[in-house]
Specification:
Blueprint (H helix, E strand, L loop, with lengths): L1 H18 L4 E9 L3 H16 L6 E9 L6 H14 L3 E4 L4 H14 L3 E3 L16 E3 L5 H11 L3 E7 L3 H16 L7 E7 L6 H13 L5 E6 L3 H13 L7 E5 L6 H8 L4 E6 L6 H15 L11 H23 L8 E2 L2 E4 L2 E2 L22 H9 L2 E2 L1 H4 L6 E2 L12 E5 L11
Subcellular location: Membrane
InterPro entries: ANF_lig-bd_rcpt, Peripla_BP_I
Protein name: Receptor ligand binding region domain-containing protein
Amino acid sequence: MLLSFKLCWNFILFFTCIFGYPSRIPIQSFSTAGDLAVLATLNFTVNRLNSGTPSTFLLAHKNRQLRMAVDDSWGMISKICTELQSGFMLMLMGESNQRSHEAYMSVVNALEIPLINWELSPHAFLPNTPNNFEASIKPPNAQLLADLLLMKGWNNFVYFHDSDISNRAAQNLRMIYLHLNGRTNNSISSEMLQLPKDVEQFGEFLRQFNLKRFKLNLTENIILDTKNNYRQQQLLQAIRSAQFNQQKYNYVVANYDFLPYDVEMFQQGNINITGFQIIERENREFALLKRQIELAIKELNEKPDLDLETRLAFVHDAVLVAKAALEATLRKNDSLFRKNFRHGELYNKNFPGIYCYPSMDKQNSNRPFLTFEHGRLISKAITSLKLSGSTSGTLSGQVEFDRDGVRKNFLVTVIDLTSDTKSAFNKK
């Protein structure tokens, strides 16, 4: 039985390679140098897809780790263009920094390369701005925060944010007010404060904040927005360790990394805090991924995190979206890629690879500037997808995009912990 299945599967690959589908479709990911967890997640997900239910093609995944300064846009563009020369049909990366993101988009838009960003694209903060080739796996949180402010009945709040994401935080605050203006006529005031760069200063920052506000005797509603999970954990630890009365403090963790560990720690305290969870932790795929990352990190004799970071679920889902989009593209025309693969190489409009600068192709001096011939079709397939966690294996629930490639119709669990009474709501 097993032998016959393998023979059948090999025949499918042979048949599709000759009569329509390529046996392998190349995709390219870019990650930060040294980010082992992201690389382990990418490899795990690709291997799971390639070894799972028989499909019409396999993913040929290649990763390039980038090590450079944030402001080195030219160096980043050069490395992306170098990888494109060997050819790939879809690109994955995780970038929310404005300048680095612009470097990617300059290539993506010029050559019409489909891009899946597992972080939240800066374009998400610019409504009605055309974004034809990028989709973001991480959902926006402005509407969630606006709805929470209204449910809590707060008429003021303070927005704590990291200095590295000052621009993004300001844009997010603007988006919060756009949602509020459509829901209420009440005036809601806000203030933005930068967190210290050194996490060791979080405790002193909170102490000084309390000293300045103590005489006002006001209820402080504080949104916490950090650039990564590590800084968030350090800030939450500083809040739990603070030596002043926080009875009139209400905290909201703006990101989706309010972990079960955090819930357990704050349930034992006397602090009002609200957070969001988006990972479907009961999903078997979650347990398998968590185990794989722990093994990869232990190989380097490093201590694994207490729980799986939410961003790794977004990385996982980015690969699933890539595979599903390519499948959807071929379902509409199963011979679409028939002329794109020759002797294991990707050809674009009869020329090997994709070049940012045609003059760099020394083998084909007559090469004109060419955009990727299937870029628009694949990008359209991405934004037309609707994947659910139960049937598609996504870890962040239903994945669906609006026309600008921003997540919509996603499910979030709100965890509301209060110090004096039972939580007003713990809902989805």
